[in-house]
Design a protein that fits this description.
Layout: H1 2-31, H2 39-46, H3 49-74, H4 79-101, H5 107-132, H6 146-175, H7 186-189, H8 191-205, H9 211-222
Helix pairs in contact: 2-3, 2-5, 3-5, 3-6, 4-5, 5-6, 5-9, 6-8, 6-9
């Protein structure tokens, strides 16, 4: 009986680990984490720009909300199985997204790879949640907490990414072009659009004192 009981426990753990792996794969595709990101750049480039903006923000936010509800709220006891895996995926996603974004010539593909990198930063905050427990602390306390970092980062990311895509839509409606080289001289043709795009891109990069900087500040503080 002892042997059969141990076998049942091992079988249950193997089944649970398999379920965790499948969940991570599903969430990875939903939020375009490396190595499940292959669909994102081509989809973002080929889809109408308003749809691309929606996919890069609302869809990603919903994916991370579902990930938090599933892994943090429903399965915290299994964090030993998925914590290290997600930490590794987070680092690879950040590195890959930022490096590949530098080589893009299409503004929508650039924002697609930026979106991949941003997903890695958000995941970094999510990985920190089990270490301190699932609780939302008052922002005025200035305490570094994983869930606070995720919420702040998501708010800043959604606002700035939608803003960047709004500028891209405005320029595309005027010129019909989305290549980065066609943005040369934009400051002279449309100074307001150029200034707004600069602010949004600086925020996505994390330059202070933008929203993107504060999101990264809280996420890295929790890490």
């Amino acid at each position: 009986q002892i042997v059969s009981g141990q076998g049942a426990i091992e079988g249950a753990r193997a089944l649970g680990f398999t379920a965790i792996v499948l969940l991570i794969v599903g969430f990875g595709f939903k939020t375009s984490l490396v190595p499940f990101h292959q669909w994102a750049p081509d989809t973002y480039e080929g889809a109408p720009t308003p749809i691309t903006g929606f996919l890069s923000t609302a869809s990603k936010a919903a994916g991370f909300a579902l990930m938090i509800r599933t892994l943090i709220v429903a399965l915290p006891s299994l964090s030993v199985d998925w914590l290290t895996v997600l930490a590794g995926i987070s680092m690879i996603t950040i590195l890959f997204g930022n490096l590949v974004a530098l080589r893009q010539s299409n503004i929508k593909r650039l924002l697609a790879y930026s979106s991949i990198a941003q997903a890695g930063y958000i995941l970094m905050g999510l990985v920190c949640v089990p270490q301190v427990g699932f609780q939302i602390l008052p922002f005025s306390d200035f305490q570094f907490n994983g869930i606070n970092g995720v919420l702040i980062y998501l708010f800043g990311y959604i606002f700035t990414n939608l803003g960047a895509f709004a500028v891209v839509i405005a320029i595309e409606n005027r010129t019909g072009k989305v290549e980065i080289k066609d943005y040369a001289g934009l400051i002279y043709r449309s100074p307001w659009l150029a200034s707004l795009l600069l602010i949004f891109l600086l925020s996505l990069t994390g330059i202070p004192p933008t929203l993107g900087f504060w999101g990264k500040y809280f996420v890295f503080g929790a890490a």
